[in-house]
Amino acid sequence: MRPHRGFAVAAAAAFAMAAGSACGPQQLDGTLVLEFPSWQAADESFSAWWLELIDAYEQENPGVEIDFYQVPFDSFVAQQTTRFAAGDPPDVVHLPSSNAVAFATRGWLEPLDERLAETDILQEWTPLQEQMKWGEDYYGVLLLGYGYALFYNEALLAEAGVDVPTSPDELLAAAEAVSASSDDVFGFGATTVQNPDNYTELTSFVVGGGGSWSDPDGAITADEPVAREALQQYRDVLATAPPGIQSQQRNELFFNGQIAMLIDGPFLLSEVRGAPAEVRDDLKVAAPPFDVVPGGVSNGLHVPADADPETADAVWNLIELAARPEWQERYTELAAVPAPRQGSVTEEALAEVPELDLFGTLADDAVDIFPTAPGLRQEYGRVGDTVASAAVRLFATDTTVDDVARNLQRELEGVGHGR
Amino acid sequence: MAGDTEVRPSDAATRTPGRGGDRSPRTRARREKIFAYGMLTPTLAVVGLLTAYPIYVAINLSFRGGEIADLQNLGRYPLTLANYVEVITDPELLADIWRSLVYTVGVLAPAFAIGLGLALLLNRTFPGRRIVRPLALLPWAVPGVVVSAAFSWMLDGSFGVINYLLRSVGLIEQNVAWLANSSTAMTAVIIPTVWKFYPFFTIVLVAALQAIPHDLYEAARIDGARSWQQFRHVTWPALRAPAALAIVITGVGVFREFDFIFPLTGGGPDNATRTLAVRIYNEAFEFFSFGVSAALGVVTMFIAGALLLAANRAIGQGVR
Amino acid sequence: MVTVPTAVPPTRGRRAPRERRRRPPVTRGQWWLLALSGAVLLVLLFPVYWMIMTSLVPSRELLTSSPPLVPPLDTANVDAYGAVLESRPVGRWMWNSTLVTLGTAIISLVVSTLGGYSLSRFRTRAQQVMGFTLLFSRMLPGTLLIIPVFVIFASVGMINNLWSVILVNVAATVPFTTWLMKSFVDGVPFEIEEAAMIDGCGRLRALGQVVLPLLRPGLATTFTYACILAWGDFLFARTLMPNPNDWTITVGIASFIGEFSVDWGGLMAAGIMSMVPMLVLFFFLEPFLVKGMASGSVKG
User: A Pfam family this protein belongs to (chain A) (predicted)?
Assistant: First the structure.
């Protein structure tokens, strides 16, 4: 035993004795308990699917129980980081996909290629599954990949006398028309304080205009004309957005009928259904007003590296069950988002949620808003932070677009080369 | 004025260990020493066990290179000074330190002023004081999580009530996006922190005020001292030591405070509120650079330690 | 606190409080003081008032450019409280918080009284260094220490165990409370103790029988301080007790902030409920906090 580890154990043992208690091992009376923390365990739309899936799993696998519990979204990634870094990862690993690469590069996740080869997942899955790849290996199974859509308030647009926009210019014109109509109503909604969501919102404009932060080799392209144009569009459109608000606030204002348009993923639809009755019917979805559909990966399931084989197999069985066609269809029905398996949108689901048709098409066409260059993917946090800072300069300062672009170019180049 | 420099016999006594009516000074001194350390042992044990090991890990970590993934087996990773080189050569470091100082002083000064003002008020006798006092301390009872959520709601740039109130009284004309604007963000994170911390000053200072015997004021009045002179010569000397301690304790807490800044701004906009504590968190949990984060932590520890020493000297008898 | 170095003629201290106990009639100046206090409280407690507003009024009505400043009678309701109590185990969270808080406060009180006494009465160089080290140990942000702390408790299976949170909260509190207690002990003249020791009491008994009663305000302050810190702790609780059954009230409240939306009404309702125990604590301990010191015996 390494000396400092020994110290830790001794110290902790002293406490354990002082406290007069210590927990038992994971396996009691031969039952294998899989720990499964998730930020979706108390989520209204997704948790229903998880609970059904887990029930089915426990019936199919007697002797295995799943301890599925909620961890608040705000602290979820920090909590998982702590657990992995401390060498005590959970059994079923559920991660927001933007963070998954960082976990994979640290060797915290088991490569799944061999297991995937025995299934049809790689053939039947959305192309966004490629985002679950690091180096040569897949380290996870994508649960939700999507294209961004335009959510809009039909009544507000009609009052302002504008149509649903189909291009960035129309978006700006429509947003300005709505904003001009009242003090308490805004044309567009966005996150207007610094937040990781600034990244997705700004990058949607860039990718939507056919640009990117880098080419596949990692050369930064934030200062190209395409990107600059998108930065300008973002700044102009956000001038019609409520200033100084968090993304949850943005959503709330949209549901209250105080924001006419916003761009977000299909998961927002289930939240839209919770809007006040008098607004709900006005809230509609359309294709985003861009030439290219920007898209993203939401979350996926993973097996922790270094898990004992029995646990790893049991976790994989859960993933494999979740990937079966019937559970993928169920996912579509309960969460009202297109599941990653092709053709999971059933007639019944479509009858219930007509938007699924559009969401399906968008997901198929989507171009991921995160650059594919490995150097940048590995540094997701830094890239996100850098771009978010640029976004803040665009919506909260007078810095010229050229300066913002040049600065961003330089800073992103620094990220690629650091470490 | 009454000699606030006069040293009482007991003062001298407490300053000399093992003094006082000893018949056999040496044995007594040794017994005293054992006793002294014996009483400090529980403190050292609980702090040592749960702080020494984490600090050891942090220091060890700060010297490790490579893609650190397992903090239990740091020996696997090569020793390096690269983390320190990166931290110290980063021109941003000075800005981070500066922001930490601005935040700390920006919180301490108003919190102390409010705390002192309230303490002087609450020390007076008036009807309803029994109700007013606990209410004045109420912000202290509000958990940090709730404080930051409440203020993010009130500081909302579009419909926050703070903007509405300021507009109503004519202090601002347009809504201010407090948390999005780099010139207002620091103020916006200082306000909730002040709100949370002033009651501690109040409670400490009220206790100190109550301990001042009334006779002293009477004597001062007889000497013809006005209220300001009474404050200077009677009140303030009695408050100095507890005030100094409260400032140091709070200052240490605020310098490494994270609970208010992070939920409100995450260190933004454009790093305007990125203090050392926020940066340490971001390096570890957003960027996964555990080594850099730990090196920053160690640097922070030294800076804070130096400040503490300086404060200790400046305050002189306060925290002796 | 109160190492009041001002020379107090010891014999006269006793009379002051007795004189004050006779209640003189309320003067006009005192009413003014009350009015001033009211005005100050109005400003200082506005955030709490606005939290109450938010818990009573649908957030939709507050999200306008001129929100109502008093709850509108027709739409204000206590539904948020009902919904929170019904859908979330607030009672359980509060109970967990109570256990953590009491455990932390009691252990901190004992440990820091002993430590504070030692630091106050024995001023050797080594003691001073240790006292300083205590404060120094609090310089590293908890966010950096949390992973090693997790390692310690995980290695003995004490994750999801209340004791782990209590112990780490004690470790976080004691460096401060020890200093706090030291300054209170400083305020107790050594002669009192010395007299007791000459009477045949040992040092420990002198501490228990003579010094401790005089430390009541210090004990109350330390207890309150530890309670506040432990009750408000979020980082340790959320890291060491991830299981929802073991959540404390702060972790529970944080869960109202969702990925897509914040339940403001619920969050504020739970936030208000989370203040009540500490307010009750203030109400009961406050006289000890401020009066004990003035009781005169200290200076006797």
Answer: SBP_bac_1
